[in-house]
Amino acid sequence: MTSSTVAVLSSSKEFTSKYKEEELLGEGGYSQVYAGECRSTSTPVAIKHIPKKDQAAGRLCDGSFENPAVIGLMDTFELETEVIIVMERPPDTVDGHDYMFKVKHVPEDQVKIIFKQIINAALLMHKNGVFHRDLKLENLLVDRNKGTPEVRVIDFGCGDFVENEPFREFNGTPDFAPPEVCRDETYRAEATTVWQIGVMLYMICTRNSFDTLKYMEQDNKVLGNVSKKCNDFLSRCLAFYPSQRPTLEDLLLHPWLELTGPHSNDPVLEVQEYCLRACLDIKQWIERLLFQSAPPSPTKSASTVSRECACIQRSAKEE
């Protein structure tokens, strides 16, 4: 499967003619996100404004495997002083932090379903050559109005492309950085993603905040409120040394993620796993060819496109 390229537009008039901008949804260190609506279809959208002085140069990418758990990219506008990214805004969703902490109790079986989706999504992102680098509960959208919670990954503002060489500079939430970053060592994409999955699970199990430095200093005992399999899964994700952490594929095979009962044949997971199988069946040499190919000619698109836009484009097939 391949993703169609989203054209980079450069007219503010075209933006205002296509989209109506509404209330501010959130603001971060590098951007602002507004609610909005597509004028022609009344479809709700999220509109992200990124000042050019803060946004990294990137590239729009083709050749991605379909990833239904990544938020979809609709339009990109490169204006004089900013880049505007227009994305899907699924109705009736809340961020993962609100979903997990505004209810008194989330059953462990439901937590399993959510994390199986997160791992599937992360594995497909990596297979598509994208390293999110800031996976956390706030960067997930959860549809809570269906029988099975559906998870979508958002906010690729700290994202980068998976490289063979390790990374040096960390971009992401400092409290959730892996121990190797705290030790001023280099870090790799997959081991960091596995650590961040462990951080999210730890926060849900303990209903507490997380700080890597504090976690490294404390005596991390077995959690009494979850199963032994969950504790084992957690301890593997939060191993202090990256070589001791499992791969994302190994995580999917962990016994804790085995689903039984009404969720064992869940259609949401079946779609994700179909896409994952299609991705994993591709030969390794084809993957290397896709992920290490030369970037497109700068004459085909603007030379200063948000890296975030590129990561979204490469992570999820666009309709």
Automatic annotation (TrEMBL):
Where does the Protein kinase domain start and stop, copy by copy?
A: 19-257
Q: Which GO terms describe its biological process?
A: negative regulation of apoptotic process; regulation of mitotic cell cycle
Q: Which SMART domains match?
A: S_TKc
Q: Which Pfam families match?
A: Pkinase
What is catalyzed by this enzyme? L-threonyl-[protein] + ATP = O-phospho-L-threonyl-[protein] + ADP + H(+); L-seryl-[protein] + ATP = O-phospho-L-seryl-[protein] + ADP + H(+)
Q: What is its EC number?
A: 2.7.11.1
Which top EC class is named for this enzyme in its record? transferase
Name the InterPro entries on file.
Answer: Kinase-like_dom_sf, PIM_Ser/Thr_kinase, Prot_kinase_dom, Protein_kinase_ATP_BS, Ser/Thr_kinase_AS
What is this protein identified as?
A: non-specific serine/threonine protein kinase
> Where does this protein come from, organism-wise?
Gouania willdenowi
